[in-house]
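Lab notes, practical 5.
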Amino acid sequence: MYKTGVETRLRILENAKRLFYRNGYKQTSVDMICRASDAKLGTFTYYFPKKNDLLSVIYSEYMGRCSEYIRTECLDLTSSEHHLYTVMLYYQKLYSDPQTVRFHKEIMEIASMNTWFHDSRKLITEFSATNSTGMEENFYDLCVQADNAVRRELNLEFMEKEGHTPEDIKRLLEKIYSINGLLFGIDQKKIGRELEDAYHFYLSHQNCSVALLH
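Output from the prediction step:
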C-alpha cells in the first residue's frame, strides 16, 4: 500500500473511531465517516467494504496496543501471563469510559468481537493442567466458539449495571476464566494467581493512555 493509501486508510479509521465514540455505532453512517475524512464512498469501500469491517480492525488494534504496552512494561512474563495481563488491561480500560461502554454494548449486541485466540493452541497448552494438543480439531473449534459465546453473554450481562469498579471487572474475568477452565481443562489455581497479579499490575498502571476509541 502506498504512503498516501496508508494515510487515507488511517484517516478513515481515526475519524470512524471519533464518530463512534461521540455518536455510537448505529448513529454513525458511512456517509458521516466519508465527510469527516474528506473521502469518497468508493475510497471508503476500497479499504472497508462494509461499515462493520471497521470493527475487527478497531478491536484487533486495541488488543494489539494493550499487548504491546504489557510487553514494554513486563519483560519476563510467560505467554499465559502476558495473555492475562493483556486481557486485564483490555477490559479495565474499556470499562473505565462510559462512552466506550455504550459503544461496546452496541457491538456485543450485534456479534461477538473477541480476538483472544490467535495463538490459542500455544496458550491453551500452557494454561492447561493436561495437554490440550490432543483435542480433535472439530471439538477444539467448538470449544473456542463456546468460549466466545460465554464472553459475549457475560459482557452483556455485566453492562446491564451502571458503574464498573476495577474489582468488579476482575470478578468478571474470574467468572469468564472459570467457565473457560471447564472448556479447556485450564489449571484454575494457576490462572487465579496470574489474574491476581495482572490486577495488581493494572492498579499501578491505571493512567496508561491505551483506549479503544480515542
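Observations recorded by the TA: The chain has a mean pLDDT of 87. The chain has two domains: 3-47, 60-203.
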